[in-house]
Amino acid sequence: MEDSAGTVNNKSMRKSQKKQIENNLNLLDRAHGAIKKALETKNTEIALTLLEQTQDLAIQMGGMIEEALGEDFATVGILESYCEQIYQTYEMIRQQQVLNINKTCKSLQKELIRIENSVKNDIHVRTTVVFLPYKASMWDSLESVWKAMDADPDCDAYVVPIPYYDKKPNGSLGQMHYEGNEFPKYVPITRYDEYSLDARRPDVIYIHNPYDECNHVTSVHPAFYAKELRKYTDKLVYIPYFVLDEIQPDNQAAIDDMKGFCFLPGTIYADQVIVQSENMRQIYINEYIKAAKEMGLGGEHIDRRFLESKFLGLGSPKFDKVRNTRKEDLEIPAEWLKIIEKPDGSWKKVILYNTSISSLLRHNEKMLVKMKSVFRTFKEKKNEVALLWRPHPLIRATVESMRPEFKAEYDKLVEEYREEGWGIYDDTADMNRAIGISDAYYGDPSSLVPLYQKTERPIMIQNVEVGVSGQ
Prior knowledge:
By secondary structure, the protein is α/β, with parallel strands linked by helices. Helix content is 47%, strand content 13%.
């Protein structure tokens, strides 16, 4: 890009800084009108005061531009010329010299227009975007957006994993976790305690946790609640960490099972919410309005036109990740290969077994009995089939917080499965590796199912009531 002086300009300014300069230009334009009126009414004291204030504001703008773009930047030179005209006008008035009011004001306005054009055409805007994931296993809900931002030469994109806590049964915060070292190696990580949102004030913040204090199992650090983050940015964007089975907007029975996701701190405080489809967008809007009315809220919370611009059905980045994951590109741990490979080097059929939080909370001890039954069945077929068990990343924390009476039994089940070594236990952050290497899905009707559907491989939903009598 070339500036108005014809030189190449590769420097840029923060969007918020340029906006501040544009606001100051509006103030200068208004000041010009007031200066002309003061001169016409022969109120020289007011005219002199306004000229002083105008010059101070122009000098302030010049300093801001000079700091960001350099003292030789085109706009700085135009501002200097403008300040010189202000000074000359001030001195003529102070010395009571004859002044052609219309000519003087037109000359000042001409310089101001030159400044406005230079700001508009020469100052290149650079956007700062911050991603605040908390669990590495949920990074895929933001990754494709980050990749696009990171590839944009006019954008500075930061990935700042934030700490989270387990919640104790009484609702208080328990152990803190930080997973910044578990993200893919190609993702540059900035520590949360080395990035000040208050000082840096990014243009956009992306989150994937909508709960704030409303989750019974975990909580991100309260400093990163959505209601706090909106103080530090012009645009807070929430993208759900999950995807759901597609629902038609008129299927109220199915909607009732998921409507709790539609009205949470993340959807309330975010400036924009991006969901997986247009149908889901309409459901979110409808259920948001219902919940807001039930709480007695008005204004933008029940304004459909406003909400239609707030909620966008652009699709989930999780779908992008699944579609772009190729088996041949995956790094498979040696201990997994020992279970997957047959003696001749060929692969067994790999079955992804997924157990969800909701099924455990719904079925309680019966779910544990079902899992034992599944393990017995697949252990008998271990020479032909490799079971890859991937429980929900928060399932143990959920047991500890909401079903503590089953904690010892669940821990024993995990320990025995891992020690026997005939199947794979996947508690890593990379869910897409499990999807990529598997040949079929078996397990609970969780948010992993609509993702797995993108692979067009077989899916079988387990029935907890089947196979539990053998215990």
